[in-house]
Amino acid sequence: MSEAGRSLELFFIDGRPDGMLTAEVFNWTGHVLRTPRTQIAKALARVEAGYTGVYVLLGETEDGPLAYIGEGEDMRERLKSHVVNKDWWNEAILITTSANNLHKAHVKYLESRLVELAKQVGHTPLENGNQPTRSSLSEAATANMEAFLDTLNMVLPAIRVDLFLSKARPKTVTAQTQSNRPAPLFSFVVAKHGVHATAQLEGGEMIVKSGSKARARWVGSTDQKTHYGRLHDKLLSLGILTIDGDHSIFTEDYAFSSPSAAAAVVAGRSANGRISWTLPDGRTFADWEAASVGEAAP
User: Fold this and answer.
1) What is d(CA 98, CA 30) in angstroms, rounded to the nearest whole number?
2) ∠ CA(101), CA(107), CA(113), 5° rounding?
3) For the chain, what is the radius of gyration of the CA atoms?
4) How far apart are CA 112 and CA 126, in angstroms?
5) Cα atoms in the Cβ-side hemisphere of radius 13 Å centred on 59
6) pLDDT value, residue 38
7) For helices 230-238 and 259-267, what crossing angle results, to 10°?
8) DSSP assignment of 149-160, as one string?
9) pLDDT tier at 171 (50, 70, 90 boundaries)?
10) What is the edge-to-edge ordering of all strands in the sheet holding 89-97?
11) CA 153 vs CA 119, 147, 249: distances in Å
12) Other residues' Cβ atoms within 10 Å of the Cβ of residue 6
């Protein structure tokens, strides 16, 4: 995805942040409608609900979050059947174009790619059974659909749909700060548990580097496990953390939303990342942050 800025327009249809909304990006043909199930009748009355497109159902069962990805030449008819036959979902995302210029092969391709991406990320189990067959498109049409997906993967997290948002990061050149200086490399060491991790702040995320050593298992309290402990377990299940004796190793760079989230997964317990992560000169993340803010002042 390009690092150039993009302009996203959200329209809250009934003026409520938890109600129906549409999302569009300047110079992108895509159109996204998010609706709670409680407003599904109103959503299906909209013209774009009858367009050819792909849709995502989000909800949960007693086993946890669940999602379903489908496609249809008339999404309205497909969603009507899901209202009757699926009782677990509570939100629907309808993805199409403003001019209704997707056709069956397009949406079958998009459906297959979205299922593939969701399974790769592994955030939420899918009710979908087998991997949908990817339709055969020309080279040009395939490139167009991949470009469509590229923008869609920016739009969906902005409307709180992170089903396809991977926190794994490919290896890149040395990260730069906004002043074009190399981003500092922080360390977190707990020698007695074999913990030795390194991380950099990139794009507002704490990126723990591949090869970093963390605790093998979560040892924090049960209450803490409902948050960072579950993330620790998930990274193990996805293979991003692999057990190696008494500790686990990051198999690839991974982005955390905060220094404390990164520190907790590395330590296997709740940890204050602002003081756990340190620079080679002994300064903590909090020290570095305070100095950076001071430098940014006019």
Assistant:
1) 6
2) 135
3) 22
4) 13
5) 19
6) 93
7) 70
8) HHHHHHHHHHTT
9) low
10) 8-12, 21-25, 30-36, 89-97, 53-61, 64-72
11) 15, 10, 28
12) 14
Rounded Cα distance between 107 and 59, Å, is 22
Which tokens is 172 given?
A: 């890149």
- Report the sign of the C-alpha dihedral through residues 233, 261, 62, 44, in that order: negative
Question: Across-strand partners of 12?
Answer: 21
Is 268 within 8 Å of 220 (Cβ atoms)? yes
Please give the model's pTM, rounded to 2 decimal places: 0.70
CA of 193: how far to CAs of 80, 141, 213, 216, 246, in Å?
A: 54, 52, 9, 9, 7
Nearest-5° angle of CA 133, CA 139, CA 141? 75
- Quote the strand ranges of 185-227, DSSP E: 186-190, 195-202, 205-208, 213-215
Residue 187's closest CA among 116, 279, 70, 93? 279
- Tens-place pLDDT, residues 110-130: 999 999 999 888 878 899 878
Interstrand relation of 64-72 and 30-36 (parallel, antiparallel or unpaired): unpaired
The H or E element spanning position 244 is: strand 241-244
Residue 86 has pLDDT above 90, yes or no: yes
Backbone angles phi, psi at 136, to 5 degrees: -85, 115
Q: Which spans in the chain are helix H?
A: 40-44, 75-85, 104-121, 139-158, 222-224, 230-238, 259-267, 273-276, 285-296
